Amino acid sequence: MRLARTIGPRQGSRIAWNGGGMTAYLLALESTCDETAAAVIDADRRVLSSVIATQTDLHAKFQGVVPEIAARAHLERALPVVDEALRNAGIQKRDLAAVAVANGPGLAGSLLVGVSVAKGLAVGLGVPLIGVDHLHAHIYACRMAAGRDVFPCVGLVVSGGHTHLYRCNDPLNFVPLGGTIDDAAGEAFDKVASMLGLPFPGGPALSKLAEQGNPRAFRFPRSFLHEERLDFSFSGVKTAVRYQIAGPGHVDFTQLEIPEQRKADLAASFEAAVIDCLVAKSVQATQSSRLGRLCVGGGVAANRKLRANLTETCAVRGIDLVVAPPDWCTDNAAMGAVAIERWKHGRYDDLDLDVLAGLSRPDVRQRA
Ligand code: KG4
Ligand code: ZN
After folding, report:
1. In ligand 1, which atom is closest to the CA atom of 271?
2. Which 8-state DSSP code applies to residue 223?
3. What is the pLDDT of residues 86-129, one digit of tens each?
4. For residue 331, how far is its CA from the centre of ligand 2 (angstroms)?
5. Cα–Cα distance between 186 and 201 in angstroms, integer?
6. Cβ contacts of residue 274 below 8 Å, gap of 6+?
7. Ligand 1 centroid distance, CA of 166 (Å)
């Protein structure tokens, strides 16, 4: 059932795509998980401002994102973050030509806040509303960073919620090639970090500790490494670390005393196992699809060793590797610039734009 009218550009106004020689500004919103973010981007993909309000402190004591807390925090922060993004860009609401929002995948409650704010702004200002896919956006961060067209390419989205390989035919058309059958890589980083007593979010802390450790101290499993399938599994390596730390049975990890060097060795060996799988499968996907280009996005792509390993391996194999700078790998709204790819073709959304918490959207289809 159609609930609402399409929000289109005002008649004859300055707000059509790059129309009339006037600068057109897009406001992009991001609230899929635990970052409330807004960015102002112009039609030439210049990022005029990018503001991120992180909720790390709210979730730290739970060692993971608590959906209800995240949604409430988005509610408090969304409008101040928008105001700050506009202020930093030196423009006002009335200068906006379109409003974009990530409407999935993510936490339903968190998504609802961003989508509701975007709808309110679009209706109030009479400008187009454009829903974007958070995974498209993570790969589009590579296009933004490279400053050139990067499509078609193989895209690896590796974050707290996703570890998936896609054939990215264009910025809005991703065909799944494979993905994790259990935990996302970032989730495994966070869980192992928690077992080692490191602060949330675990990825950056674990990777820092790993610098002091020996990546060959423990031989953790590398799932599917020598198989053709382009899938990942990180629950096995997570369990293997747990057994090394504490063996089977119930354990209170907060009471465990692990010697510092052993901790660092566990971190380094875990990190090496995860990176080996991510690099091998990405290279395999790029070679088997004969695309010759690999774009990597998502929070785990901020990992220094992963970036170094990818750079080295892709150079040897002649693969054009594009990874966004670390700040654009973790959740942000500047990557919502992918909305430009719809904006310029007048592909807007209606007011009944829904949140899509899972992966099932027509342009990110499940594998046949
Ligand atoms: O893309 P993102 O900001 O949010 C999601 O869409 O999930 O990714 C967050 C994830 C967390 O699991 C975090 O621990 C991980 O990315 N992460 C890292 C690093 N920085 C962030 N993992 C490993 N090494 C890092 N340097
Ligand atoms: Zn993300």
Report:
1. 23
2. T
3. 999 999 999 999 999 999 999 999 999 999 999 999 999 999 99
4. 5
5. 9
6. 185, 188, 189, 234, 237
7. 19
